[in-house]
Amino acid sequence: NTVQLSYAVDLTLNRRDITNSIQINSWAINTAQNSLMKYKMGSSPWLLRREKTVQLIAPNTIFREDCSQVTAPIQYVYCCFHAQEPFGLRHLIGPYGYALIEDPFHLVLSLLKPLVKIYNDQGEQGWYKNQAQLYELLDLLKDLQATDEPGYWVFPSKHTPKISSDFVKSV
Question: Alpha-carbon distance 24 to 80, whole Å?
Answer without folding.
Answer: 9
